[in-house]
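Page 47, continued from p. 46.
Same chain as before, 334 aa.
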Amino acid sequence: MQQARRLTEQARAAETCGQCDLADQLFDEAIHLLESGPQDALLADALRWKGTARRDRGETQEASDLYQRSIEVARATGAKSAEAHALNCLAIVAQRRGDFQSAEVLYDRAATLGNRLQDHQLLGMIGQNRGVIAQIRGDLREALARYEEALRAFDIAKNQQAMTWVLNNLGMLHDARGQDAASEQAYARGLDLAVRRNDKRMEGMIELNRAHLRLKQDRLDEAEASCSQAYRIAASRGDYLNAAEALRCRGTIERRRGNCDGAQATLTLAMSLADQCEDALLSAEILRDLGKVCVARGDRAKAKDAWQMARTGFLNLGAKVDASDISTRLDSLQ
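Result:
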């Protein structure tokens, strides 16, 4: 048991600093040890942690399978905390796939257990995830309340890593509200925490979101620098999801510079990766960007096809603001 615990700690540390192959090897060794003896809560935790490592790299189905196994072990051993955390993780998978109804049901079940256990770490994670859903749906006031709730919970839990997650989301929220200075401040604070902790995944995600903010401000050179750094981190980790996000950003930069052929090729590759990762929101966003490239090339028919698929994707997610934006763009083609 002690050896397995050491292996899981080493695996999580390796994953954080970007040594993903080593993390997988260490998780597998720990799980093998734990499965060879009486099952307990540590096995449920190890399965969930490995699942999250896979989820963060865009391996969505593999993550879902590991979370299901974690829940089974947790219920068989009466490990309520492990069950609650695995339910939250399974909700994140449903959220990524665009099934918000199932995600909300799973968050409710996880929150019920979390409140019973007074697990502030878990409650913070649920609050943050629900904030993301609210933001996608355009309810920015609800999103802000959820993120602030999550920050308070993580502060109580003294979890700096999780505070970095929320600061990243707050940066995006302030950006969506047109509060550029507040967005920059949240990203700077989150990036400082990520670099000090050598948290490569969060460093890459924050750099990518800073790139989008700088794109909006027409600071293309700075946006390209942040985008390139985000892509380098994702590629070094074998992280297909954030690589797709970075390619989407690069495609926009190429389009803005007049390189429509390059933009289309880049966005097509990003779309392939997003579909592979089963990220419904990212796929819709890339389709919107592809439509813009088609318009710039004078191909209105292909722009219409891309935007119609994007609108369907946004409507399925309940992202009314984005769907309305696409409708306006389609009207402009008439």
